[in-house]
Amino acid sequence: MRLDLRLAVPVATAWATISAATVLRADGAALCLVVLAVTLCAVMSAWALRRHPRLFASLLMIAVAGGATLLLAVRWSSVPLTPDDPPERCEVEARLNAGNPLPVTVDVAASECDGDPGPIGEALMLEAELNPQELGFGTRFTADCSTWLFEGTWMLECTDAVVLERPTHAVLSAAWRGEFQQATAWLPGDGGALLAGLAIGDTSRTDDDLQKAMLDAGLSHLTAVSGANCAIVTGAGFAAAAALGARRGVRVIVAAATLVLFAVLVTPEPSVVRASLMAGIALLGLLRGEPRGALPLIALAVFAALFINPQLALTVGFVLSVLATTGLVVHSAPLGAWLSKWLPTPLALAIAVPAAAQLWCLPMLITLDNGVQPLSVLWNLAAAPAAPIVTVVGLVACIAAQFSGIIGGLIAAIAWPAAAWIGALARLSETLPSVQVPWPGGWIGAVLSAVLVAGALIMLRRQRLGSAVVAAACCLGLLSATVPQVVQWSALRDWRIVQCDVGQGHATLFRAAGQTVLIDTGPDPEALRECLATTHVDRIDALLLTHFDHDHSGAAEAVAGLTSTVVHGPTDADAAEQLHILAQHGVEAVEVEQGQRIDVGPIGIDVLWPPPESDAGNEGSLVLALHADADGVAELIVLGDIGERQQRRLKGSLPPAHAMLAAHHCSRDQDAALYAEVAPPVVLVGVGENTYGHPTPSCLSLIEAADSAALRTDLLGTIAIMADGTVWSERRAN
User: What does pTM read for this prediction?
Assistant: First the structure.
């Protein structure tokens, strides 16, 4: 049966145009060019595909591989925007538009502010002193919030939050989840911990170690509710009714009821509702008896969603919902027919539905990690048969647990081996080295991945398995041959200062006349090693540790073999343990205090803080001024994690500088006068995903007030200031 693409093609063109407009912020003329280019490419591709499908697919796959390789060498420089106005304190009454985790969107119904910012309406809440279990969709609460406008969107950082009302579905969902957790509490190990997450998205029993193992193995998406989960649940309900001999109409009703139950169970926040609606469209196609004829319905739904909210164009959850639904209606039937050659028809259909959805989501899932991990592909293939079993059987067990905990627990035990298998795969991945083939990040990488998968499907559809294998081998060969060379070409060389992207932490490189010092290491050894490889650093002449918090010194042992000297400030028991480990590698420790100077070749390092007899910790962080010339201007000032009180005591003692590191990841505890006094052109902010609200709007505001540019690693990745003063960054800010 031929696919009806008459509506899908123009909607896809509109989607691409909206995405381009969002990313490029293009003006009218540029948008017209984008529309014209996309339309011409679509028409020409359709013509080439119809006339020479195999040649088209082969050339397309090789071209994409080459284009991906070139994109790996591209680096963007950008300065993020700071808040439009200083924050105000407001008492707000609001309702959550999504569930945990933070940040979440809220509708502010009423507010009383120190100033008069006007009606707030919809806002993004970045921080809230609420139990994560209280952050359910539809929850109404009051809170004392710091409020500011950022790029046209209201932002909230809230404290003293009090829940006023929890919606009925949230109370019901919490009760159901609680019964399910009690019924499965006896199931041991990782299988028991993962069961609720894989079945209903409840990860409360999954500890940090297991979550990290799942993330490293590329399996974390299995515990997040998305369009793929809704497709699996919908398909399972449809397949179960079919296995019982029900007619098509009854099958669709059963599938719809299963989907509604699942949506309530996982809380019907907007992302789940969107995924459920897309799965419902697939059900309409099945009801008509023409699964592939559901494509126009999907296209119509996408058009309506983008018309109402164009920002959905670049929302990962929306894209996954569309992909999963399209895969369900396009490939579940042929895949089920192919599997039925070896399996009973009900079992073949049960496997085909989630497999088709997962296949279509694969390019996006790969791209979310900014690379292709060959072992991750293997882990996902190995987990593929188990994931639908846990989802479907776990949902049945959850329903049964509401009537009998014993019966629910026994049914859950059927799914436990599959959950334990997935957990074992994640644990096994920890014992093997991590290998990642570079791939362009973001939406460009997603499109390239999708084109490669589509090219392979075209060849396989034409029953040219050998051609598909050869083309795939050519692509892999091209990538393996050119990526190392491109990475070598694009690696940083003529840099002076590098702020490494090590997540929520600090690691900064400074170089002058062939001498290199590393200020702090960050918490992640792998991220630090990657930064050193990018900058071609294989020798560190001195390691400077501002203090011994894990986010500043946690990866010190990873560079112990590259240096012979570590310079540090006040110590405590934890510091002594870290220094002992470094000493075992032959690293000599040198303690310094305010007023001392250290010379590392041509690099002069003035110690400006702490005073003698200071205690270890944030207040005792080293404050350093690094010089490479005798002109009195520091190349870099390092503030460690000192707060406003210590910064005020430094007033008048800091030299002017070309760059400065924001104190304490740009927390609230800052002295605006110090930043204004130094007024560096660039302030580097080492920050990653965190629950502290870093960088805070107040800190970004005072950096802007000092006429400095705030360059953040959470937006730009690794950042370098070159010898000629230009700025390089690993990626472009969104």
Answer: 0.48
